[in-house]
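queue> pop job 88
queue> type: inverse folding (structure -> sequence)
queue> payload:
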């Protein structure tokens, strides 16, 4: 998880008028910014600052142009590349001549979903977090329980036995609610504590997911980051997207949903907003809503000729199918995403990853009676 140290000290660089050097270097740099602004997330600290023309960039920096902004980056080979507005793009994606991403593709969540496992554990950071789960019906009443996972040393009558630990679930709060959105108001959650959210209805429907309260240091980082981004006074949608990326990097998926869902009704919503919503719904167990927003992301991204977001959304739809144990549909959706990644100048290893997934899905199909 990327930890975002957006300090107010670093924020001073946002408003200072810096005269950036113009000497030629092997580093990429921002060439021009028109019809908007661009936020630059620094590779070493995660700090967001305002980008300026001729500003040097590092390979692991990322750029987030405002909606409608026209931002161009000069790559080390002298070629100028445009940056997609309204989405966070890494410099190594913008400049294909840079080395391929140093982050190897080690994602295994799709295969875990196919196996019926739950690979995600959302985080919370507020004293009274808001939880959201799949809606059964407008008339449904939900029984909600929050349990804390406590690790204790297992009892043994053998004095020479090697000590082992076991986990126990202790109910710390219960409530009855009539909506699929609930603000927790029980005992304070402990920093870095592990918990379970369990929701049931009278007809036997159930929902359960593990979650964790952020550690104190990470909570401070996120809090400072939010304050720093709000101080930038961005346009509403740009601010929401910047905050959503911050929350996503901290695995605060319920925060992403709470922030972005009210914006869906607006007429001009970027595909990346639906993409972030879909990912957050998937990772909090609302598979139906995840599929809806991945589909919307595909439609909008295709209309805007945004191949990367289209490919990402198809992989998301594949994960939805995997969570439903639909092996054939999973493979079909991956096969749709793969050529889209192959067309990109830098695919960040996704073509190879999809090959690996498809091979393992095929092997599983061959061994199924």
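queue> result:
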């Amino acid at each position: 998880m990327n930890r975002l140290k957006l300090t107010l000290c670093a924020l001073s660089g946002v408003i200072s008028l810096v005269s950036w050097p113009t000497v030629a270097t092997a580093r990429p740099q921002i060439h021009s910014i028109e019809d908007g602004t661009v936020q630059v997330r620094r590779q070493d600290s995660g700090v967001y600052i305002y980008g300026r023309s001729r500003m040097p960039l590092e390979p692991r920096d990322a750029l987030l142009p405002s909606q409608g902004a026209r931002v161009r980056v000069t790559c080390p080979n002298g070629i100028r590349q445009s940056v997609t507005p309204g989405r966070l793009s890494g410099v190594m994606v913008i400049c294909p001549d840079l080395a391929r991403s140093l982050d190897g593709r080690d994602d295994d969540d799709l295969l875990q979903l196919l196996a019926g496992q739950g690979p995600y554990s959302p985080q919370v950071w507020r004293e009274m977090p808001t939880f959201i789960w799949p809606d059964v019906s407008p008339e449904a009443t939900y029984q909600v329980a929050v349990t804390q996972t406590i690790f204790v040393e297992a009892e043994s009558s053998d004095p020479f036995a090697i000590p082992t630990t076991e986990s126990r679930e202790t109910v710390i709060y219960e409530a009855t609610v009539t909506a699929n959105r609930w603000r927790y108001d029980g005992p304070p959650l402990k920093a870095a504590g592990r918990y379970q959210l369990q929701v049931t209805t009278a007809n036997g429907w159930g929902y359960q997911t593990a979650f964790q309260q952020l550690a104190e240091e990470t909570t401070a980082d996120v809090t400072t980051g939010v304050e720093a981004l709000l101080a930038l006074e961005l346009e509403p949608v740009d601010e929401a997207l910047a905050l959503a990326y911050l929350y996503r990097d901290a695995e605060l998926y319920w925060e992403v949903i709470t922030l972005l869902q009210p914006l869906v009704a607006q007429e001009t919503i970027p595909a990346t907003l639906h993409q972030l919503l879909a990912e957050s719904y998937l990772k909090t167990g609302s598979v139906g809503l995840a599929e809806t927003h991945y589909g919307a992301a595909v439609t909008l991204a295709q209309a805007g000729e945004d191949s990367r977001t289209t490919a990402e959304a198809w992989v998301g739809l594949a994960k939805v199918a995997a969570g439903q144990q639909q092996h054939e549909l999973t493979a079909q959706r991956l096969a749709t995403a793969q050529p889209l990644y192959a067309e990109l100048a830098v695919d960040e290893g996704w073509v190879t990853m999809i090959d690996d997934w498809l091979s393992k899905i095929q092997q599983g199909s061959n061994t199924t009676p």
